[in-house]
Amino acid sequence: xxxxxxxxxxxxxxxxxxxxxxxxxxxxxxxxxxxxxxxxxxxxxxxxxxxxxxxxxxxxxxxxxxxxxxxxxxxxxxxxxxxxxxxxxxxxxxxxxxxxxxxxxxxxxxxxxxxxxxxxxxxxxxxxxxxxxxxxxxxxxxxxxxxxxxxxxxxxxxxxxxxxxxxxxxxxxxxxxxxxxxxxxxxxxxxxxxxxxxxxxxxxxxxxxxxxxxxxxxxxxxxxxxxxxxxxxxxxxxxxxxxxxxxxxxxxxxxxxxxxxxxxxxxxxxxxxxxxxxxxxxxxxxxxxxxxxxxxxxxxxxxxxxxxxxxxxxxxxxxxx
Length: 321
What we know:
Blueprint: H1 2-15, E1 39-44, E2 50-53, E3 60-62, H2 71-76, E4 88-95, E5 101-107, E6 122-126, E7 131-135, E8 139-144, E9 147-152, H3 161-174, E10 182-186, H4 194-197, E11 203-208, H5 211-220, E12 227-231, H6 234-241, E13 247-250, H7 259-268, E14 272-277, H8 280-292, E15 295-303, E16 313-320
Parallel strand pairs: 5-6, 10-11, 10-13, 11-12, 13-14
Antiparallel strand pairs: 1-2, 1-4, 2-3, 4-5, 6-7, 8-9, 14-16, 15-16
Helix pairs in contact: 1-8, 6-7
């Protein structure tokens, strides 16, 4: 799997990124290859049973077992009982570093459903207009490199914590910054990278659209006086900042960087761009744009965050010529 994923990243950089000899360095394998996911999202079948979306088609495939989630999640999900007409579209289960379980019920109605399980857990209804705490706490506690992060039910966080730690260490290693540096962390989420960057630089500017992630970011980085957070889409915020950061860290969703955000990034002209990507195809597309704008691709390092799947995470390092 590691060999295939390394080859896929290299091929996409050649075909889409137009990089003749892509500098793809050794992939980092996951120390845990099964039962590693701390978060899983289930769709519900017409009978209300958990399952996964059918590949390449509409519909839900009911499942009897899954070998990717943590054992604590696997002990819970078969116990969930939900009425098929309860208005629940998806069910997410997250297991914190303290082994506490948090269930998020994504609903198209503000009315909470009836449900029952035999173990203590936290439950949040993620409604169309607002979230409603039904039991326990509305967040999980995730630990990375000895630091604890609050992550709300609706917030994104890396699903493979040992590999998240490996990525953070690598990003800190490749970012060329010091106590005089200003860094923009675009798509900063709950602050995974920002929390470790902030003590090392003069000023850190986070940009994040998701409200729940912004609230988590504010809690997780409350101790720092050199951190500011802009709430909104990167394509809306970045063009208005009018600053020249030494480095920009990017961790966009699978769709990659919006064209307006890309234009603003090129205009900001940071000396270094570190791009964390969950889709090597959109990464290759965006790298081609940055190279055309005067950047050199120094390296791309794949991380196998998702063993037993075709997905692969990458960290690309680019420098201004």
